[in-house]
Amino acid sequence: MKMSKVFIVVKTYPTLSKKYDELVCTAGVLENGSWVRIYPLPFRKLDYENQYKKYQWMTLPLVENKNDPRPESHKVEDISKISLGDSIDTKNDWSERKKIILENGIIYRNLDELIKKANNNELSLAIFKPTEILNLVVKNTEREWNQENLDLLKQKASQYSLFDSIEKVEREFLIVNKLPYKFSYHFIDDAGRKSTLMIEDWEIGALYWNSLKSSDNDEKKAINLVRKKYLDKFSEKDIYLFLGTTRQYHGWARNPFVIIGVFYPPLEKQLQLTL
Fold this sequence. Notes:
Blueprint lengths: L2 E9 L3 E3 L3 E3 L2 E5 L4 E4 L17 E9 L8 E4 L6 E5 L3 H12 L4 E2 L2 H9 L5 E4 L3 E9 L6 H14 L5 H7 L8 E8 L5 E5 L3 H13 L4 H15 L6 E6 L11 E7 L12
Helix pairs in contact: 5-6
């Protein structure tokens, strides 16, 4: 069984799947800087100590996911073999995180170049540096999960209850709240192309729910808090976007990418010249 050491940089907001229950799409970089997608990985079914974080090293038994045509896609051969490593903090202006992610990675600045490579099945994950973030677009979406998927999960839960305690069943089948809004970045690349891509990062979902709580369930105020961070505060950061293609649109769509993570180290301080 081959073990791979992966630095986790992407953890998307959960979705429901008929086949795999609740899923989090996870991606990271190997020690040589190349990308891997780890899917499916049922986040909540991992033991508590193995509920991994972003910017943390993990060692996993990975094998190629032959059911997914995207070139970086892998799956975990034995979930019990997963082990966690060090978490990398933000000390020294995120220097260690930047070294791991950016030093050996290819940074793209032209979206047409990325789309062409994706449609040729050369890649499905990439680091993208926008020339400018123009806006954070917020749109309403369905507020509840698909009922058919929910019913299947309830059915599975009732089967589990024959063998496990009620507490364990409730813990494993606790469904995360569905986001009632879609958040997208409107940005421009180095060729002047303007694009709008949805942000599917776990972080923006958690920020919305925390902002809603702190705003006494005022959704307008919560959205403004999300906008303040992702647009206003991030305008003062050195922004990179982790892009990934969706399986449904990979290889043929005009733009198969979504934003699966936002990397926002501080801008490097320019040394002042003295006369």
